[in-house]
Amino acid sequence: MKKLDYHLHSYFSADSEENPRNHVLEAIEHGLEEICFTEHRDFYFPEIDFSLNVAKYFREINRLQVEFKDKITIKIGLEMGIDLRFKSEISEFINSASFDFVIASVHEIDDIEVYDGTDFYLNKSKEEAQKEYLLACLEVVQNFELYNSFGHLDYVARYGAYADKSINFVDFEVILLEILRNLASKGKALEVNTRLFSESKTQQFYSDLLINFKKLGGEFVTLGTDSHVAKRDWAAIDNAREIIKKAGFKELATFSKMKVK
Ligand SMILES: [Zn+2]
Ligand SMILES: [Zn+2]
């Protein structure tokens, strides 16, 4: 199974200050064969301007691809925040450049950011907040096709003022199976996002997702740390690889110009 990281952010994303070169050096030092930058673009995001200077992004990563071509494969990707109200702008943006790989992610719902300190979790039990998030993800996978992998299904478990933020597969089995069925039947990849992998409940959640994705005929899995800095939890990648293998996936999916390799 390839050693790679298919979800990382540098200073081309509004919420990262990391130099992409540092990501490359760190990845080489840890023996990765391939990385894919997946910078943020979210249309009309509340509070923060998540625009992306595409020309500058391509120029700089293209230079790194040349400089490190004998050491590591570097891909140019995108993490697209999906809000179906802006479907046409989103599609136009994705088609405007030759991205290697596109992650579809839900970061806000009806102009409310799914994040700490926002109104999203206000007056909601953890289960209500998680259900609302997953239903928004389901709507996206049912109505949007222009992407390769669906990002961080456990995103909602990162935030909210709950003593135990974790998410359980069995609590949302019907919705999650429907999401996985859509991804599998449309040839989309499921992302294993290692951001919360230090918690065993996260590992269990992804293990349940992967086993069911395989049963439903899912073929492609991508793996990413979602790291906004070069230093990261490398053990999480190894743990994730084991869970992916155990679920019956022999290889991680990689992409060029949005086509699976
Ligand atoms: Zn994200
Ligand atoms: Zn991300």
From TrEMBL:
<keyword id="KW-0378">Hydrolase</keyword>
<comment type="pathway">
    <text>Amino-acid biosynthesis; L-histidine biosynthesis; L-histidine from 5-phospho-alpha-D-ribose 1-diphosphate: step 8/9.</text>
</comment>
<dbReference type="GO" id="GO:0004401">
    <property type="term" value="F:histidinol-phosphatase activity"/>
</dbReference>
<dbReference type="InterPro" id="IPR016195">
    <property type="entry name" value="Pol/histidinol_Pase-like"/>
</dbReference>
<dbReference type="Pfam" id="PF02811">
    <property type="entry name" value="PHP"/>
</dbReference>
<comment type="similarity">
    <text>Belongs to the PHP hydrolase family. HisK subfamily.</text>
</comment>
<dbReference type="InterPro" id="IPR010140">
    <property type="entry name" value="Histidinol_P_phosphatase_HisJ"/>
</dbReference>
<feature type="domain" description="Polymerase/histidinol phosphatase N-terminal">
    <location>
        <begin position="4"/>
        <end position="84"/>
    </location>
</feature>
<keyword id="KW-0368">Histidine biosynthesis</keyword>
<dbReference type="InterPro" id="IPR003141">
    <property type="entry name" value="Pol/His_phosphatase_N"/>
</dbReference>
<keyword id="KW-0028">Amino-acid biosynthesis</keyword>
<dbReference type="GO" id="GO:0005737">
    <property type="term" value="C:cytoplasm"/>
</dbReference>
<protein>
    <recommendedName>
        <fullName>Histidinol-phosphatase</fullName>
        <ecNumber>3.1.3.15</ecNumber>
    </recommendedName>
</protein>
<dbReference type="GO" id="GO:0000105">
    <property type="term" value="P:L-histidine biosynthetic process"/>
</dbReference>
<dbReference type="InterPro" id="IPR004013">
    <property type="entry name" value="PHP_dom"/>
</dbReference>
